[in-house]
């Protein structure tokens, strides 16, 4: 009986920017996307990448790993930005060719301003590409949230993350004759967890050493937590202001009456400015000047015996 | 071309064969004919030869590569034929080198296999999906490194 010819699998590893990539001709393993990106960067062409996927799937981590394809050294503090002003700062300060990750904050869906800023960032790359040349990576829940014109003509690649560390890369090519954009599949990506060689944990969330950790993943989580906490404080202040406008006058009057001793002077007269301060500090109710006078009038009307003005003899 | 701009092809004048001839259909027909012939009840080696040659003829020279020519070379077989005349149930004369003739023959199934391998290498049979796989780095054990340094 004839022996069937054995197919020899030739696998090898190719090093690019400090990372090893599998090359297997028979199973179609090849670092196509990385080589294409580096060639574009070398030719000083625009590199704008959108990383899409559902919330929590690892878009930002994938974005950092794609940035490491271009330059292996990645500084989280300078290269990860959340607002347009920080992006402009990074464009001016960073050395040419360093990628910038314009990250999506967790509150983006509730605040459309982030999407407007993301569009401004992409439009800005048209001007800044010539002299600054910073590749932009934009993690986003769905590319449809960005304006169609900006998305089709200013974005070159869309990386759709469908599972942790796994994605499909599409190259966008707009037609020069019609209002159409062709999506060509470039390749699939299979990346390991970021900094998996330095930490065995699969997530920084819940880790007790997050405040001191110096690995890339930990630095990113710390920065994101800091930025999100600042926004939560802003949101809290705004919501207090909004809620205080909705409280009825009767409730404010009753609440103010409980703190009578703090805003009444020695002659039992109501000090309007003190009333405003006391209500803000103790009850978190913000009163405008007009509202404060209205409250004063209501207090005198509702509790006439308690606010009788005495005269110094 | 790495991608088709179908709308652009519609606006240009269609003067090329590629716009008018359905090459994949013709190639598919030739392969199906070969399969039909080799599985037929009335197996005829001449018909098999013709259908295999048709498939090989349909492949343009520009598409061929060195592996294809090597595969065609492997499909060559030499058969030694005794050219002595037959007389009364036996062959006349002595068997010598001059009487033995070497004839070149082809294994037609290997020829078709070579054509199919060539089409596969050119990604014309199926769409290959390239995967970029980054290898994970080995976990660095700080304590083990410290112990080694102490030693």
Question: Any overview of this molecule?
Answer:
The complex is a heterodimer of chains A (313) and B (151). With 313 residues, chain A is of the alpha/beta class. Chain A contains eleven helices and nine strands. Chain A has helices at residues 32-42, 59-70, 76-79, 84-93, 113-128, 148-154, 216-246, 249-258, 260-263, 272-283, 289-302; strands spanning 11-16, 19-24, 48-52, 80-81, 100-102, 136-140, 157-163, 166-174, 181-190. Chain A has a seven-stranded mixed β-sheet with strand order 4-5-6-3-7-8-9, sandwiched between helices. In chain A, strands 1-2 form a two-stranded antiparallel sheet. The longest helix of chain A is centred in the last third of the chain and has 31 residues, at 216-246. Chain A is elongated and about 100 Å long. Chain B is α+β, with helices and mostly antiparallel strands and 151 residues long. Chain B is built from seven helices and five strands, in the order αααααββββαβα. In chain B, the strands form two sheets. Chain B has a two-stranded antiparallel ribbon with strand order 1-4. In chain B, strands 2-3 form a two-stranded antiparallel sheet. In chain B, strand 2 (86-87) and strand 3 form a beta hairpin. In chain B, helix 3 (23-38) packs antiparallel against helix 4 and helix 4 runs parallel beside helix 6 (108-121). Chain B is flat and about 95 Å long. Chain B starts with 5 loop residues before the first helix and ends with a helix. At the A-B interface, strand 2, helix 1 and strand 9 of A face helix 1 and strand 5 of B. Strand 9 of chain A pairs parallel with strand 5 of chain B.
Structure, briefly:
With 313 residues, chain A is α/β, with parallel strands linked by helices. Chain A has helices spanning 32-42, 59-70, 76-79, 84-93, 113-128, 148-154, 216-246, 249-258, 260-263, 272-283, 289-302; strands at residues 11-16, 19-24, 48-52, 80-81, 100-102, 136-140, 157-163, 166-174, 181-190. The mean pLDDT of chain A is 84.
């Amino acid at each position: 009986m004839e022996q069937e010819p054995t197919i020899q699998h030739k696998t090898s590893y190719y090093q690019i920017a400090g990372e090893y990539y599998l090359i297997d001709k028979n199973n179609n393993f090849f670092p196509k996307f990385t080589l294409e990106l580096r060639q574009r960067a070398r030719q000083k062409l625009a590199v704008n990448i959108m990383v899409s996927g559902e919330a929590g799937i690892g878009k930002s981590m994938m974005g950092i790993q794609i940035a490491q394809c271009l330059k292996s050294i990645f500084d989280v503090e300078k290269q990860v930005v959340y607002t347009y002003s920080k992006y402009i700062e990074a464009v001016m300060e960073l050395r040419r060719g360093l990628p910038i990750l314009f990250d999506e904050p967790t509150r983006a869906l509730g605040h459309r301003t982030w999407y407007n800023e993301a569009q401004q960032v992409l439009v800005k790359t048209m001007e800044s590409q010539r002299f600054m040349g910073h590749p932009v990576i934009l993690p986003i829940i769905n590319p449809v949230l960005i304006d169609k014109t900006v998305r089709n003509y200013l974005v070159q690649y869309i990386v759709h993350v469908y599972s942790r560390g796994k994605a499909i890369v599409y190259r966008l090519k707009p037609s020069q004759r019609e209002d159409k954009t062709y999506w060509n599949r470039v390749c699939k990506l299979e990346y390991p967890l970021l900094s998996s060689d330095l930490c065995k944990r699969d997530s920084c969330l819940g880790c007790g050493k997050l405040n001191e950790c110096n690995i890339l993943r930990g630095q990113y989580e710390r920065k994101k937590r800091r930025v999100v906490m600042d926004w939560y404080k802003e949101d809290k202040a705004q919501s207090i202001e909004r809620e205080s406008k909705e409280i009825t006058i009767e409730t404010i009057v009753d609440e103010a009456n409980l703190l009578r001793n703090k805003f009444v002077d020695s002659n039992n007269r109501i000090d309007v400015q003190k009333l405003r301060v006391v209500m803000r500090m103790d009850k978190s109710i913000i009163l405008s000047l007009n509202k404060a006078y209205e409250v004063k009038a209501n207090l005198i009307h509702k509790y006439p015996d308690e606010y009788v003005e005495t005269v110094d003899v | 071309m790495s991608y088709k701009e179908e709308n652009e092809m519609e606006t240009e004048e269609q003067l090329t064969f590629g716009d008018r001839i359905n090459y994949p259909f013709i190639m598919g027909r030739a392969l199906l004919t070969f399969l039909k012939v080799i599985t037929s009840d009335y197996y005829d080696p001449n018909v098999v030869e013709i259908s295999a040659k048709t498939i090989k003829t349909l492949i343009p020279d520009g598409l061929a590569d060195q592996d294809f020519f090597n595969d065609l070379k492997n499909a060559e077989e030499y058969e030694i034929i005794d050219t002595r005349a037959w007389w009364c149930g036996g062959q006349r004369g002595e068997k010598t080198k001059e009487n033995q003739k070497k004839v070149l023959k082809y294994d037609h199934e290997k020829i078709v296999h070579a054509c199919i391998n060539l089409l596969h290498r050119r990604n014309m049979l199926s769409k290959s999906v390239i995967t970029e796989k980054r290898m994970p780095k080995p976990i660095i054990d700080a304590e083990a490194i410290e112990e080694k340094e102490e030693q």
